[in-house]
Amino acid sequence: MATLLVLAVLIPPCAKYIHRQKEKPGGTIRIDNFRDQNELHLKYARKYGITPFNSGKDFLEKKEGLVSGGKLVRIGNSRYYSVNKLTHSHPYLIPRASELLDQIGRRFHQKLKEQGLDEYQFRISSLLRTGESQKQLRHVNGNASPNSAHLYGTTFDIPYRSLVKKSLLGKSRVVHEADALRVLSETIGELRKEKKLVVITEKNEACFHITVR
What pTM did the predictor assign? Predict the structure, then answer.
């Protein structure tokens, strides 16, 4: 009898969760068209950032010294965000930019909760680049600037078409969730108004290109 009572209590919430997992999220993604251009990003990148690395070899030779000296922080998956597989950048930022990432995450989760939405992680698609990797990127992306704020460790890209959702078992999956993506855009916009960051909405790469200020 006790076992039946427990099942009666647990099954409805679990069934609801399973049903929601099967649902295909829809809706039109509404995001802000932020327009803080490259020169403004470079202004803050040069003010706060590190001296750019010329190449991957240069990065490997100097990385540990900058990390141990508190100039760079390694960025990995957290409660708030998930780092994509990186092809043209390295998972490092200056501490100021790392703190901004967490600030975006905390504000994003707070706003999701206030609006009665599920918890999601945003994704990070690019971080610290070298001069060499920036040049390589320009061969596949003609819109990539030859002098990018990514070179200074102050800048990161957050895709705005998808998020990461974790199941009860901890398994992650990429989802399209329009309401949550709208909240992410609102979060970034609020921090921009508070002069915490500058940002441009990149249409070709479908991401928010963000530099700490």
Answer: 0.84
